[in-house]
Structures are given as C-alpha cells and as structure tokens.
Design brief:
- It contains 18 helices and 17 strands.
- About 13% of the residues have low confidence.
C-alpha cells in the first residue's frame, strides 16, 4: 500500500515506514535516545531527500521522546533542573543549526556534510562507548567497582564557576557544561535530524557524572523540546517537514518506544551502553562503506503497467468514433485513394481517341494539388489528480493523420514523434571532484529554465526520422532539450556547456524524469496512431505540454500541441499550501500532532500495564 508524500513529492510504502518507525522507537525507549542517528540515513537510503529526512525526523523524534519521557517521569527518572539548562542551550544550538542547513543547501554541500558528520561522529562516539562499556562489564564481573563511575571524584568540570545544585542527580557542578552540551546537541539536531541522545547520554554519564537511570529520562525530556523547536524552525525556514511522512513514522515510533522502555528496565547500565555502542558503529560502517550514490538514490519507480495497457485498449476501441467524425467534416478527396501513391506512373487508358476528353480538359485534374497531410492528437486525460494514493500515472497519446497517403500501418510512409515536457524550472547543476579522498561539489552552473519532465517517443530512432538541423529547430531529442543558461555561463566554451547539459540529462534519466522510447509510436491502420507514457511519482506538479510531429521522408509536414495538468487535490493540496503559505503554523501543527501521538501512546500503554 503506497501513499503520496506532498512535501517529499514521492510515493511511499506505508508498512515500510511504519516498521522503520517502530524499530527506531524501540531504541529510543530502551537507550534514551531520539533514534534519529539511525532513522535519518535510513530515510535517505529509501529515497527521501536529505533535507526532508532531516526536517521530518525531528518531528518524529518529538512523538517518540514524549512517549518515552512520560514513561521515565512515572519512574521519577528525570532531573528537570538539569533538563531545563540543557534545553536552553539546545534552543540556541538548533537556531544556529537551521541557518547552517540553509547555507549548506544553497552551496550544494548539505548531502556531503551530513555524510561526513555521521561517519565522524558515530565512529568516535561508538568506539569510545564500546571500549568503556566492555571495561565496565569486565570490572563488574571481577567484582570491582569502576573508578570512573564514582561520583565523589572531581574533575575539571567541578572547578568551573556558576555552580548549581541538582538534587535529583545528586550533583553540585557548574551550569556551563550542561549549557554548552545543550548547544552542541541542539546544533546536531538541526543539521543531522537527530535527537542527540547518542551524544547526550555518554556526555552526561562520563563528563557530568549523572547517574545512568536519571540520564535516560533527562535526555528524553531535553530531546522533546529541542526537536519540537527544530521542527518549527525547519518548517519556517526551509519548508522541509513532511507531516504525512512524520505521521507514518510516529505510528510505529510511539509504540516501539513503549516496548523499548520496558526492555531497558531489564538491562544494566553498562549493558545498555554496550548495545548502543554496537548499533552506533554498525550505522557508521554502513554509511562509510556505501557508495556516494546511495545517499541520493534513484527514487522508487512506481506505476502500473497493467493500468496503462487497459487504458490503451480502451482508447483504441474508442478511436473509431472521432475518426469517423473527422471524416464526416472533411470533404471527400477529388482523387480516388488508390491514385494518391504517385511513385508509380499511371498507364495511358486503352480507349479510342474519339471517346476521350480534350487534352487540356483531361490534364486539368492531374495538375490539382494533393491535399496536404495534417496531424491531430489528444491525450487520454487533460487533468491528473495527485491524491494520497498517487504513485505515478500512465498517459496515452492518440491521434490521426488527415489526408493520409499511407496504404497501411506497415507501409511506413510516415514518422510520428511525440514529446511531453513539464513546466520549466530553475536548476543548479553541481560537479564533484575528489578532494583528499572525498567527493565534494567544487563547481556549479545555474540554468534558469529546464523542463522538469521530458519524454520522447517515436516510430523509429529520431536520428533516422529527420536531420539534426530539423530536430534542433523543433527541440526534439535529449541533445536539444530547451535549457536556458544563466549569465554566469558566458565564459564557458560550447564543449563545456554540452558537458553540463549532458550531465543534467543523465541525472534526470536516472530518476526517470527524462525518458525515451525509440519505437513507442504505433500506427493502427493507415492514419491512426497511439503511444503510451509513464510518469513516475516524483514528477513535478504543474502544466505539461504535448507536442506531436508528423514527418515524411525527413520533412516536417505538420505539428500539433495540446496541454495537460498535474494538480494536487484534497489533503495533499491542503498540506502543501499550508506548509508553504503558513510555515510557522504548519510547524506548530506538526509538533502538536507529535505531542498528541506520544501522549496517547503513553496513556494507552500505561493503562494496559495496570
């Protein structure tokens, strides 16, 4: 079962995302982490744009953290005073992080930054946690109390000014370290789509010496409010929060968090840290070992071939009606159909000279010009509705050649080329270079106008249909896709521009937004033809133009243009307009849904446990 995501602009499998949410929610409840360090790369792997994955995961973490925090609050495992200081720093860090995300997206370095940040942070934190937890387990098995866990020992943190007493944590330390830690975690929440628990938990244990049982609840308390603020900021500044995707993740996340909280009570602190370290390192290995293209995979290819086939058959059965109407409106030709093929000279009539008409009168009909061919076409639908179940669509283009001189479909007298192009949009192409073993965007070129969708089909390869000059003048083929360069391209050579254009086409073809079928147009009889097109779920909403070209012996005889529109409807239209027209209220609305989902799950599970 698929559902359309209005902000991510893709079709998603409902069960897949609910299952992902449940798995990550389980970790959230067990370890006291938001789970974003695992969910964000998973979302990117399945095709969600990086910026949308980061912004939306913050909303999902709100739900799972609320659910987990309420469970910890009932057990009195939250230090609210410590959590408030962490929260103050987290808000500052998240504001700064959202602005950094905006700058990195403009520079085209956001995907690279996220990858490097995950690989570095997860590797360092996971290794440290793994080593410490193993040492702690060994000392516990030997009957020794780990010296590093004794709260009576002081370190440099205890010598800082602005000391405060935290009664629940039984600490008397400076407020500066929790404040700085909160800033750092809030920054990570904004740029990586994480709750920051994988940083918060070990830092509170090893740096601040907070008891393990208090760390989990306090971490979830801080994560709840920081990710709520981050969600609102991303919705306002970047418009990258998809509430539909967040809901799917929440459904699984809030349930998984409850089971995780129960499982976490059955494990000792060092065992929890050991498991968390293993998961952190596993994610790090996957990110480091994956090819860079996996961070921007081709989005899920969707569509129904059976539906397109049925539509084609229905269209074929209906073609006879308009064709008869066209013939009824067109006067009958002055010359019999058999005489329209003029490649063979007609033999002289075997009648006596006296019975024939005068030479001048006989020659007159033969000098009359033949009716010129013209092409007419239409599409199977002029309006395509993008609703919650949209997973791509099929388009049938059908038409007829007026005054056709073709004896049959097999004669191949005519060539038909059909091009469907989406609304032009601004595009920035970026080129990667290997810098120190890392692939980084080092140069870019702006196009002020590039078709968002471009599909071409023909009766045979277009290079066999017409000359390059004819194809170029009509904008037919990937080499001649109408792309308008920005003024900054004035210093580039023709070869360099071609390389950039080819790169854009190659990436669009990878995402199935640019398509070509060299034998996709089929004649049915002497004048009727049809072709089928597949639009993926990732196609941009807007106006589309369908152009049909009729060729004979390389000459363009006629062309015809018709329009179709891809429009959002219902909930998708409301959500999209809400997100872009009222981004602040949209962000608040998303947070309220997340909080409500977390509270509902906590109430249901707490009631069931009694």
């Amino acid at each position: 079962m698929n559902i359309y995501l209005p902000i991510a602009e893709m079709s998603a499998n409902v069960l897949l995302f609910i299952g992902m949410g449940a798995s990550v929610g389980f970790l959230s409840g067990m370890f006291g982490v938001g789970g974003g360090f695992l969910m964000t790369p998973l979302l990117i792997f399945v095709g969600v744009p990086s910026a949308v994955a980061v912004g939306t995961e913050a909303a999902q973490i709100v739900a799972s953290s609320v659910s987990g925090a309420l469970a910890q609050w009932r057990r009195k495992n939250i230090d609210f005073k410590m959590g408030t200081i962490l929260l103050a720093g987290g808000i500052v860090g998240s504001v700064f992080g959202v602005e950094v995300v905006k700058l990195l997206r403009r520079a085209g370095q956001f995907d690279f930054f996220v990858t490097v940040a995950y690989v570095t942070m997860l590797g360092v934190i996971g290794a440290l946690m793994l080593v410490e937890s193993i040492n702690t387990i060994r000392e516990a098995q030997a009957g020794r109390v780990p010296a590093a866990r004794q709260r009576g020992q002081h370190n440099w943190v205890h010598r800082l000014p602005l000391k405060m007493r935290f009664h629940r944590s039984k600490l008397y330390i400076s407020a500066l370290p929790p404040l700085v830690l909160g800033v750092f975690v809030g920054f990570l929440a904004a740029i990586m789509g994480v709750g920051g628990g994988f940083i918060m938990v070990p830092a509170m244990i090893y740096l601040l010496r907070v008891p393990t049982n208090v760390v989990v609840g306090t971490s979830l308390f801080q994560i709840t409010f920081v990710t709520a603020a981050t969600t609102i900021l991303h919705a306002t500044q970047n418009q990258t929060v998809d509430v539909t995707l967040a809901l799917l993740l929440m459904v699984g996340g809030v349930i998984g968090a409850q089971f995780g909280a129960i499982a976490g009570q059955r494990l000792r602190g060092e065992q929890l840290r050991f498991l968390l370290a293993g998961i952190v390192l596993l994610v790090r290995v996957v990110l480091a070992g994956a090819h860079e293209e996996l961070m921007r995979p081709t989005r899920a290819r969707t569509g129904s071939a059976a539906a397109a086939l049925i539509a084609a058959l229905l269209t074929m059965s209906a073609l006879t009606i308009p064709s008869r109407a066209q013939k009824a409106d067109t006067p009958p030709p002055a010359i019999p159909l058999q005489e329209l093929a003029q490649s063979q000279p007609q033999p002289a009539p075997a009648t006596p000279p006296a019975a024939t008409a005068p030479p001048a009168a006989a020659a007159a009909p033969r000098e009359a010009p033949l009716p010129r061919e013209a092409v007419h076409a239409d599409v199977s639908t002029r309006r395509i509705a993008v609703t919650s179940t949209f997973s791509g669509t099929g388009i049938i283009v059908f038409g007829a050649v007026d005054n056709s001189r073709q004896v049959s479909a097999e004669s191949g007298l005519y060539d038909v080329v059909i091009v469907i192009s989406g609304a032009p949009a601004r595009l920035v192409a970026r080129k990667k270079s290997n810098v120190g073993g890392l692939w980084i965007n080092t140069s870019s070129l702006s196009f002020t106008s590039v078709p968002s969708y471009y599909a071409i089909t023909s009766t045979r390869p277009i290079e066999e249909v017409a000359s390059e000059d004819v194809l170029k003048s009509s904008g037919i083929g990937f080499d001649f896709v109408p792309m308008t360069l920005s003024r900054s391209a004035g210093s580039l050579t023709a070869l360099e521009i071609k390389e950039w254009r080819d790169a854009v086409v190659r990436l669009k073809r990878r995402d199935r937004l640019y398509q070509q079928d060299e034998y996709g147009v089929a004649f049915v009889g002497r004048s009727l033809f049809r072709a089928a097109f597949d639009m993926p779920a990732t196609v941009t909403v807007g106006a589309f133009e369908t152009r049909v070209y009729l060729f004979r012996d390389g000459e363009l005889l006629s062309s015809y243009t018709t329009k179709l529109n891809l429009e959002r409807e219902g909930v998708e239209q409301f959500v999209h307009r809400f997100a872009f027209d009222h981004p602040f209220f949209y962000g608040v609305f998303t947070v309220l849904i997340a909080v409500g989902a977390g509270m509902l799950a906590s109430y249901v599970f707490n009631r069931g446990s009694h």
